[in-house]
Amino acid sequence: MKTLFSFILILSGFLALAGDSKLQVGDRAEHTSVKMLDVSGEKLSLDDVRDANGLVVIFSSNTCPFVKKWEGRYNGLKQWADDHDVGLVVLNSNYNNRNGVDSYEAMQQHAKEQAYNFPYLVDKNSLLANAFGGQTTPHVFLFDKDYKLVYKGAIDDNYDDASKVKKAYLKAAIHSLVAGEAIAESETKPVGCSIKRKLD
Questions:
Q1: From CA 115, how far away is CA 43, in angstroms rounded?
Q2: Mean pLDDT in each 10-residue stretch from start to end of the chain (200 residues)?
Q3: Burial state string for 157-186 with b = 16 or more CB within 10 A and e = fewer than 16
Q4: CA angle 88, 93, 97 (to 5 degrees)
Q5: Are 131 and 22 in contact (CB under 8 A)?
Q6: Helix, strand or coil for residue 168?
């Protein structure tokens, strides 16, 4: 019994470390100049993708059931971001799946099948996921033009059915950011699969 309790404590500590949210609202993004491989074969950094009013970073993956529920909205979010002069990029930080379902080749195939209209980059060694504190796929981080974090959390309040969304958190945050208004909900709970990260 004592051994089992010790194991649970160790496991809990590991999970807390793996999901520790490092960037708080108001903090600035790190590693913005690091080049990452896109599914197009080009190497891009956050600096390359950021637009005049800021940047959306979405941690995602190829096979997570929650991603599959939400990713049909990704292209629409990209258009919404474009309309507000905000960049959008999607990162795959699943280091431990890199030789399997989240390999670069699998990412390329997935992006093609889903007709992604945005950069889908390999977050090598989970560098940005660890720096930002990305917890799940998906997990959204919205930064202003100076890379200050203004929103983090879920895309909206209904992963299961886009037609039943009552609170479009990310869209509302982008709208408020560009309008110069306070963001009503600057943090929400991310819902999804754990990132299969490489720990620092």
A1: 19
A2: 37 40 92 98 98 98 98 98 98 97 98 98 98 98 98 98 97 98 97 93
A3: ebbeeeeebeebbbbbbbebbbeeeebeeb
A4: 140
A5: yes
A6: coil
